[in-house]
Amino acid sequence: MATTAKSKSTSAKGKGRKADLKEPARPFDPDTVAVARTLAERYQVVLWHEDGDWYGRGLELPGIMADGPTPDACVRELREALVYAVATLMEIGEPVPSPASASDGRRTEQVNLRLTAAERVDLEAVARAAGFPTVSDFVRAAAVEKAASAGAGRPAEAAKPSLMTANGGKAKGP
């Protein structure tokens, strides 16, 4: 879709909109689309395969979704949807999320885990034996590996997770 896509905003009247904006069915400003495209190209996408089709959503804008017969087609459609979602946010003066990759790999999110004292002691022992400096590093590595093997964007299996050691071997679980 080129810059001739039509804005689908239905809130052209009132509530913070500038009176000089054109009708909602107008083309987007090409400069706005160019900036939006630059941002949207850096957004991360989550893909999953279900019932023969590929589905995807934006990580930074999870409400923006697309589908396609192949992963490439799905990503292409999703990127285009993200571009126009960002352009719309820019036009109406709403904040535009920064790309998740802008953190340059820094961990900014935290998850808290409640354990019994015995579970903590067991995890510390397994983490040390596997060569991890902390329980957090060990649990993060095991969780990320489990999530990756379960498939991005899909719920993990309900089965009891097996913890993996740093060298890929199975470790005793707590």
Structure description:
With 174 residues, the protein is an alpha+beta fold. The chain folds into two domains: 1-109, Double Stranded RNA Binding Domain (2-Layer Sandwich); 110-174, no CATH class. It has helices spanning 30-40, 71-92, 117-129, 135-150, and strands spanning 45-50, 53-58, 65-68. It has a three-stranded antiparallel sheet with strand order 1-2-3, with helices on one face.
Write a concise keyword list for the protein shown above:
three-stranded antiparallel beta sheet; 2 domains; 36% helix; 174 residues; disordered C terminus; 3 strands; 9% strand; elongated; Double Stranded RNA Binding Domain
Largest sheet: 3 strands, antiparallel
Let me know the number of strands: 3
Computed over alpha carbons, the radius of gyration is 22 Å
Overall mean pLDDT stands at: 76
CATH architecture of the largest domain: 2-Layer Sandwich
Number of distinct helices: 4
Query: What share of residues is helical?
Result: 25-40%
First CA to last CA: what distance?
A: 53 Å
Query: What count of domains describes the coordinates?
Result: 2
Portion in strands: 5-15%
Largest sheet strand order: 1-2-3
- CATH class categorisation of the largest domain: Alpha Beta
* Element order: H for helix, E for strand: HEEEHHH
- The poorly predicted ranges are 6-20, 153-174
Q: Structural class of the helices, strands and pairings?
A: alpha+beta
